[in-house]
Amino acid sequence: MATTTVTITLSSTDLLSDELALSTTATLTKPGTSTGVEYTTGLSRKKINATEKGSSATTIYTADDFAAIPYLYLKNTNVTVGNKIFIYDDSTSGDPTWLQLDAGDWGFIPMHGDKTLRAYAPNGSDPILEFMVIGTDQ
Amino acid sequence: MATTTAAVTLTSDLLSAPMSISATTTCMKAGTTADGLDQMEYGYVDIASGTAYDIIGNTPTASKASKLYVKNHSTDETYYVSVVLDAQAIGKLYGGDWMFIPADFHDGNADIEITATGGTNKICYALFHEGTTLVAS
Fold first, then answer.
1. Which pTM does this prediction carry?
2. Which residues on chain A are in Cβ contact (under 8 Å) with B3?
3. B102 Cβ under 8 Å from any chain A Cβ
4. What residues have CB less than 8 Å from A69, skipping those under 6 apart?
5. What is the Cα B54 distance to its own chain's centre?
6. Structural domains in chain A plus CATH codes
7. How many other CB atoms are there within 10 angstroms of residue A63's CB atom?
8. Into how many domains does chain B fold?
9. Which residue of chain A has the CA closest to B90?
10. pLDDT tens per residue, chain A (138 residues)?
11. How far apart are CA A8 and CA B100, in angstroms?
12. Across the A/B interface, how many CB contacts are shorter than 8 Å?
């Protein structure tokens, strides 16, 4: 069985009057079990050309491509502040935006998996998005 | 200014070669590399099964930077919570899972709502932000 772990460390010495030091690790498993997930898209790297929502936006996950729950990792590799990448739900009326990744930002989220997600970069800076989905294929 | 960093490391042996990915970001206010997020909300709560609760009711200012962290500390792996941002179900955290996102609080009503399933789930959450709209008493 494959073992996949993901660790987050949140730290600050001056946000609070005491030091903030939070670190936790999750082992990625099939829902409701201790069996490790077995499939991944691998790490992808794509230039985000679209400047608005629509058919030209980059698809980063297709609804129900994985069984619930797929784990999504994202990183905006751009280094210039303001060169944001927006991630939106293309399956829901109104295309609601979920995330806004500014330069250098990353995100990790266990998803329901039933929505198609697309990316666009509103200021036309063509930032590069790294992303990966890990989960159970179906 | 406050300096808060968020780092992630993902390792796996599910490919034919070991995989290891790391990323670190400094949590900055929108539009700057010189001024870090200087406000936060933090909580550790039990959430009973079945009812939706707002864990973040003071909406972060739209178009500003916000980072949301949520962890399900439940030890029963069959328990889970659904995380809803502005009426959109975005995350589903089983016992032990966590999420960290630069959330898009584009709307004045974009609260964070959690619904627990399976039993009483223990949830830890933190929101790093640069201002919220406080709810008048």
1. 0.94
2. 12-15
3. yes
4. A31, A110, A111, A112, A113, A135, B92, B94
5. 13
6. 33-137 (2.60.120.770)
7. 14
8. 1
9. A111
10. 789 999 999 999 999 999 999 999 999 999 889 999 999 999 999 999 999 999 999 999 999 999 989 999 999 999 999 999 999 999 999 999 999 999 999 999 999 999 999 999 999 999 999 999 999 988
11. 8
12. 165
Say whether A15 and B11 touch across the interface (CB within 8 A).
Answer: no
Residue A127: C-alpha distances to residues A84, A86, A106, B23, B86 (Å): 8, 11, 13, 17, 26
Contact A109 B77 (CB under 8 A): no
Is residue A40 a contact partner of residue A133, using CB atoms and an 8 Å limit? yes
CATH number of the domain at B95, please. Answer: 2.60.120.10
Minimum Cα–Cα distance from A6: chain B residue: B10
Q: Judge contact between B49 and B74, C-beta under 8 A.
A: no
User: Would you tell me how many other CB atoms lie within 10 Å of the CB of residue B78?
Assistant: 13
Question: Is B15 a domain residue?
Answer: no
Distance separating alpha carbons of residues A108 and A73, to the nearest angstrom = 5
Domain enclosing residue B92, as ranges: 38-129
Which helix (H) or strand (E) segment holds residue B24: the answer is: strand B19-26
Q: What sign results for the dihedral spanned by CA atoms A78, A123, A42, B125?
A: positive
Asked if B66 and B102 touch (Cβ cutoff 8 Å), the reply is yes
* Record: contact A40-B126, CB cut-off 8 A: no
Identify whether the C-beta of residue B99 lies closer than 8 Å to the C-beta of residue A108: yes
Task: Say if B84 is an interface residue toward chain A (CB within 8 Å).
Answer: no
Beta bridge partners of A109: A72
